[in-house]
Amino acid sequence: MNWNNWIRRIHRWLSIAFTLTVIANFVAMGL
């Protein structure tokens, strides 16, 4: 098993989810 690939993939998805959450919050406040 290659832990570096797993950590990199999970970190990427977490950062994407975090960005989407922040954008969703701004849109909700804008509405």
Overview of this protein structure:
- This protein has 31 residues and is mostly helical.
- The chain has one domain (1-31).
- The protein contains one helix and no strands.
- The protein has one helix spanning 3-30.
- The longest helix has 28 residues, at 3-30.
- The N and C termini lie far apart (46 Å).
Give a nutshell description of this structure.
The protein is 90% helix and 0% strand. With 31 residues, the chain is mostly helical. It has one domain.
Q: What is the radius of gyration computed over CA atoms, rounded to a whole number of angstroms?
A: 14 Å
| Beta-strand percent range | under 5%
Q: Please give the largest β-sheet.
A: none
The run of helices and strands is: H
- Total strand segments: 0
How many domains, in number, for the residues? 1
Distance between the termini: 46 Å
Instruction: Specify the number of helices.
Output: 1
Low-confidence stretches: none
Q: From the helix content, strand content and strand pairing, which structural class follows? A: mainly alpha
Shape: rod-shaped
